[in-house]
């Protein structure tokens, strides 16, 4: 994956440390609710409906599997840490 995507955000769930605490039941519930809204059959006039639904399904697939979810959580944690450091460095330079 070249472009960073927050799978929790795609499902409409909290991200970061809060996302890591979410149960599989909550993830599945969020997926089903969003799937009903984004399914291509429900959006026949949206040319991007299929892509939106596939993106949702991909995010669900990552989060429902324990191993891929742990890898994603680790990657997300690293990204958040790098972002904080960069923001801190920028604040220090601009002061």
In short:
InterPro entries: DnaJ_domain, DnaJ_domain_CS, J_dom_sf. This protein has 95 residues and is mainly α. The chain contains 5 helices and no strands.
- Domains (count): 1
Question: What fold name stands as the CATH topology?
Answer: Helix Hairpins
Structural class by SSE content: mainly alpha
Shape: globular
Q: Which spans of ≥5 residues are poorly predicted at pLDDT below 50?
A: none
Please, what is the average pLDDT? 91
**How many β-strand stretches?**
0
Q: Identify the CATH class.
A: Mainly Alpha
Strand content: under 5%
The first-to-last residue Cα distance is 36 Å
Element pattern in H and E: HHHHH
**Can you count the helices?**
5
Using the 3D structure, state the CATH architecture.
Answer: Orthogonal Bundle
Pfam family, one: DnaJ
InterPro entries: DnaJ_domain, DnaJ_domain_CS, J_dom_sf
Domain J: 6-76
Protein name: J domain-containing protein
SSE layout and pairing:
Blueprint: H1 7-10, H2 16-20, H3 24-38, H4 49-64, H5 66-94
Helix pairs in contact: 3-4, 4-5
């Amino acid at each position: 994956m070249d472009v960073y995507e927050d799978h929790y955000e795609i499902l409409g769930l909290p991200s970061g440390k809060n996302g890591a605490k979410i149960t599989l039941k909550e993830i599945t519930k969020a997926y089903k609710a969003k799937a009903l809204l984004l399914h291509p059959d429900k959006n026949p006039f949206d040319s991007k409906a299929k892509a939106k639904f596939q993106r949702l399904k991909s995010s669900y697939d990552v989060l429902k599997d324990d191993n891929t979810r742990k890898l994603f959580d680790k990657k997300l944690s690293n990204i958040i840490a790098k972002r904080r450091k960069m923001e801190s460095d920028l604040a220090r330079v601009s002061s």
